[in-house]
Design brief:
The structure is a single chain. Helix content is about 45%, strand content about 10%. The chain is of the alpha+beta class and about 90 residues long. The longest helix has 16 residues. The termini are far apart. The N terminus is likely disordered.
Amino acid sequence: MSDAEASTEGATGADPLLDTEGVAAKIGVKDGATVRVYLKRTRARAAKGLPVRSQDLPLPDQQVGRSPAWHESTIDRWIASRPGRGRRPAEP
């Protein structure tokens, strides 16, 4: 299943699922490859037993085949709490 299919399959109207391309568009990065790098970093922290920080991409809400998918509300909450350049310092 492609990322594009993941964005439409399982959508619940009010809180649709976003694939890596959908997350990329929402946060303003070039493409889904960037989101996959962010996810790889989050999974590496989790594998080491470290907590997921506010700047880390949340772990996916679902897997659609081999594709990660997040509810739009999950990404919206992450964007709202994510440290940005000049807003506040990142957590250690």
